[in-house]
Amino acid sequence: MATKTEKKREDLRKRLVDAAELAIAEGGLRGLKARDVTTKAGCALGALYNAVEDLDQLVMLVNSRTLASLGENLRMSVAQDAPPTQAMQALAGAYVDFALDNTSLWSAIFNHKMAIGAEVPDWHKAEYPVLIAEIIAPLGQLRPDLPPEALTLRAQTLFASVHGVVQLAIHGRFVGVPVSSLKSEVAALVDAMTRGIHLV
Amino acid sequence: MATKTEKKREDLRKRLVDAAELAIAEGGLRGLKARDVTTKAGCALGALYNAVEDLDQLVMLVNSRTLASLGENLRMSVAQDAPPTQAMQALAGAYVDFALDNTSLWSAIFNHKMAIGAEVPDWHKAEYPVLIAEIIAPLGQLRPDLPPEALTLRAQTLFASVHGVVQLAIHGRFVGVPVSSLKSEVAALVDAMTRGIHLV
DNA sequence: TTTGCTAAATGAACGACGTTCAAGTTCATT
DNA sequence: AATGAACTTGAACGTCGTTCATTTAGCAAA
Fold first, then answer.
1. CA distance, residue A50 to nearest chain B CA (Å)
2. pLDDT tens digits, residue range A87-113?
3. Nearest chain A CA: its distance from B1 CA (Å)
């Protein structure tokens, strides 16, 4: 049964995550302030620490949403029965688009650092593989020789390389490619990678 | 002439950057505290703001050193008259080694964010191209058809892709490759890229 | 309904932080 | 030696995340 206490607790949690998501979207991780977020959520400052462990956990809850949303975008980007190289390009393109359209929330996924001594809980760690899940199938078609663990490893490398180009393009200090060239450079990278992968 | 005032000012600056470098190396950007760093440098809290604009500038001065040191490592890694693919592998390997051996200082280069409203000054921006400078020559040999701007662009993409793999391996939440596989995966990435580049 | 117990809400207070500032001190120049 | 500018000092300020004693609300047994 949903007691009144539990319902209110859940409601407050949702309002807090909503407010935190908005704050991060507007001002990045730096824009997330306990006082702002509780005001926006309509509760007292101290109530935050009843609904949630601390600000770190609030960030993780926001990142959880972002990862789910990003995962859905990636999943929807691949046309059914698309050839593997086309699937790779579609995934990379969707990733670039998401990062450009949701820069602050996307950055928070990778830039959030826990307080010293604190570890990322398992439930949140388990949400990250969504980033590479869709790569594995087309990569497996390109490299039927690779055993599953090697396939996962190569998918991680592939994702990380694309991620790096996007990250430095958006946040790099004049070593990243200009954002105007981002999509074409990522496409060239994926092209080279899939060709190279095919040949090795 | 070096007046006594100027000499002392320079000395203090150096001691502050030394202390800041140590603090970042030990505790990351989060480990840099105004009170700690001034105590370690042997001056009063307020003196920091006479020697230096603020903590952001102190971080940039540390990053300046790290970039110079990293640049030297990259330069020394390439054997003279090495074939271009070998030069690429050497550069990537040196980059991985530097990141693994100086993780906190290396991270600070990419994770430091200025206070809101503040911009990275030009003198510091100008220090980042050291990261891609050495890539251009061997890449030019692989792609003699590319005009200079396209060459720079492709070098940036190449660097960023390697950087991404290293970054996620070291800081990723279970989407990066294990550190034990980092060198071989980066090597495979560079191999695929140079092969792919050669063919396009 | 009333009573007692548990759990949540509240906002003042705490400690740590970056930064500023009025006061005292040192230095270069006359 | 005297003057004015520059540096040094550490207390003080404002902001932050977090805690806590107190008040308030929800729930179950009588």
1. 26
2. 999 999 999 999 999 999 999 999 999
3. 36
Interface membership of B30 toward A (CB under 8 Å): yes
| Residues A65, A55 contacting (CB under 8 angstroms) | no
Instruction: Give yes or no for residue B1 having a pLDDT over 70.
Output: no
Interatomic separation, CA of residue A19 and C1' of nucleotide D22, rounded (Å)? 28
- Contacts with B132 from chain A: Cβ below 8 Å: 175
Answer yes or no: do A71 and A117 share one domain: yes
Confidence of residue A173 (pLDDT cuts 50, 70, 90): confident
The Cα–Cα gap between A35 and B156 comes to 41
Claim to verify: residue A120 and residue A78 sit in the same structural domain: yes
DSSP B54-113: -HHHHHHHHHHHHHHHHHHHHHHHSPTT--HHHHHHHHHHHHHHHHHHTHHHHHHHHH--
């009170």: which residue's tokens? B35
Q: How far is the CA of B52 from the C1' of D1 (A)?
A: 34
Question: Are both A85 and A184 inside the same structural domain?
Answer: yes
Extract the tokens encoding B80: 């003279």
**Residue B169 domain boundaries:** 56-199
In tens, the pLDDT along A126-148 reads 999 999 999 999 999 999 999 99
Structural domains counted in chain A: 2
Task: State CA B46 to chain mean position distance.
Answer: 29
What CATH number does the domain containing A115 carry? 1.10.357.10
A111: Cβ–Cβ under 8 A, 6 or more apart, which residues?
Answer: A29, B111
Under 8 Å CB pairs connecting chains A and B tally to: 150
What are the two backbone dihedrals, phi and then psi, of residue A182, each rounded to the nearest 5 degrees? -60, -50
Indicate the helix (H) or strand (E) that contains B158. helix B148-171
A114 touches strand D (CB under 7 A): no
Whether residue B67 sits in one domain with residue B48: no
